Amino acid sequence: MRAPAERRLLLLVSGSRPDRYEGHCGVADVRMALREAEAMRIVTHALAVDAGARARLPAMYGPGRWHVLQNLPTSYPRSPRSTGD
After folding, report:
1. Which candidate in 6, 30, 48, 52 could, as Cys together with 16 as Cys, close a disulfide (CB 3.0–4.6 Å)?
2. DSSP code of 70?
């Protein structure tokens, strides 16, 4: 079901390493997905959990569309595992 909205936001939380997925193609895939979202009038913003992301994010997201989260705990909560029920 779709609800009318003036603005839609897609917030991406990432390790910002698309180069680990299909090498350079991963970065191109991210850029293409962001262009497609923009075409649908969806505002995107990335939050990275990797301090090294500062070198990669500008090329993918552009200026003002990303932030690196700082002072995170050294251990992250794990995703719930599927029990197969």
Report:
1. 48
2. -
Q: Are strands 66-68 and 8-14 parallel, antiparallel or unpaired?
A: unpaired
Closest CA to 53 of 30, 34, 37, 82: 30
Query: How many residues does this entry show for the chain?
Result: 85
What Å distances lie between residue 79 and 15, 43, 76, 82, CA to CA?
A: 15, 26, 9, 9
Using CB atoms within 10 Å of the CB of residue 37, give its burial: 0 to 12 exposed, 13 to 18 middle, 19+ buried.
middle
CA 53 to chain centre: 11
- The pLDDT of residue 39: 93
Q: What is the pLDDT of residues 45-71, one digit of tens each?
A: 988 887 777 887 888 888 888 888 877
**Residue 18: what are its φ and ψ, rounded to 5°?**
-70, -15
